[in-house]
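Sharing a chain and its predicted structure for anyone who wants a worked example. Both blocks are below, sequence first, tokens second.
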Amino acid sequence: MSEFSMTLNEDQLQIQKWVHDFAENVVRPAAEEWDEREEFPWPIVQQAADIGLYGFEFISQAMLGDPTGLTMPVALEELFWGDAGIGLAIFGSSLAAAGIAGNGTMEQTLEWVPQCYGTPEKIALGAFCVSEPDAGSDVSSLRTRAVYDEAKDEWTLNGTKAWITNGGIADVHVVVATVDPALKGRGQASFIVGPGTPGLSMGQKYKKHGIRASHTSEVVLDDVKIPGANLLGGKEKLDEKIARAHEALKNPSIRSGKQPAMATFEATRPAVGAQAVGVARAAYEYALQYAQERTAFGKPIIMNQSIAFMLADMATQIEAARLMVYRAAWLSGNGGGFVNAEGSMSKLMAGRTAVWVTERAIQILGGYGYTREYPVERWHRDAKIFDIFEGTEQIQQLVISRAISGLRIE
């Protein structure tokens, strides 16, 4: 186990500069255009693939080859400093990859995770499909069903997923579905729907408040048939889990395992927190420079305590959020687990920080900050998603309150 440290090693410093240079020279100059177009930025993702930023090799090294757990948060902060919408377009496939790695066998991981990215010559996308029109935060109420045909060793999936990043345009869809409705969340499993599988289609594409360069849509599953080998973790493991869950209904002291979606989200929440820190830092740095250059009443506006103290609080909040993200990422990378829900704490803190800091940045710029001629209004729109996706602010509070109390708070 590595010692926890905020000091980045030489490799991490190089990656930080590498990603920052890409964000500064490629992502940020294109951000306004793709935000206005509200389209997936294929050319930018292609450029990320060309340099090795988008691809299985970088993800595996950053997530599996780093004993500190900090490489991925460092890279994400820099990329999302460039732009959150484009950043999510580049790293949106990672949620599908995490869903496969967190719930699948080693053989399934090695087979399918690379297919979530493709190659620089032919890039591919992955999508993680959990939420539904009537089941967002309440993942125990998923209506998407998976029915097994033992004679054919085949699963049939039916249902509609909502708010799915890369939904419908992805090559690999990881779908969380109910196999035993009586067990609710304990009766769910994850499935891989491979490229070109009949019956999977894109529903409505959402017009969003922020992160507009990231594609978000419904995914419709109409009698989608997949082989038994595409059940993540395998049938034997699922049968054991279902049997334990039924026993747990009779005896609450029996642990029946985590829901597939929750296992994925717990692992990725520090990464989402790092994304939020990147957005907050972008707004803070812009507001700081503006306050140093903008004059009013014969002096730079930063000379006014009301502005200077705002910036001081912004810097402090960002540093605190980053520390919580690094700590949670280190715990995850070192097998320490989230004893006190540190993953949820980091996302809660970072999401709130991003929203608050970007709002303060608009205030510092005044009327200019409210116009689209300046980027802070876009950063504010982008920031709000971090209070919502991969578990709302209130869901994080629920996870934390249960951890600190040991009670099943509802």
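Comments welcome. The radius of gyration is 22 Å.
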